[in-house]
Specification:
120 residues, rod-shaped, 4 helices, single chain, mainly alpha, 85% helix
Length: 120
């Protein structure tokens, strides 16, 4: 027969992990990635502008706008993925709290989280 102390220890561990993790949801840093992308667009535009002056190329503003549009699309996809990942994590944390040390319930929570992540 398993000791109630083990169950209490598992419950305490689950609650502790939940409390620690609750403030640290996944962060994909979407805005920082988009800023780096926009900087690359700026750099390419600057190079293209210099080439246009030196070699007579044109059409750089349209290319620049397309580059910025790609950055915005990338940021939107990243934000969508961030929202879904956070939803999975919050659902998992809530499930773990309700499982309260029940080994089968905890495993069900884990499987639910894995499935949620696969669906993203």
């Amino acid at each position: 027969m398993k000791s109630p102390v083990i169950y209490l220890a598992l419950l305490f561990l689950a609650i502790s992990v939940t409390a620690v993790c609750a403030g640290s949801m996944p962060d994909y840093k979407c805005r920082e990635q988009a800023s780096r992308c926009e900087k690359r667009c700026d750099d390419k535009m600057e190079e293209a502008h210099e080439d246009a002056i030196n070699f007579g190329f044109s059409g750089t503003s349209n290319t620049y706008q397309k580059c910025l549009d790609r950055c915005r699309e990338m940021e939107q996809r990243c934000n969508d993925r961030q929202r879904e990942t956070t939803r999975c994590a919050e659902t998992y944390m809530s499930c773990i709290e309700r499982a309260a040390g029940d080994k089968d319930a905890v495993e069900s929570c884990r499987e639910g989280y894995r499935q949620c992540k696969r669906d993203i």
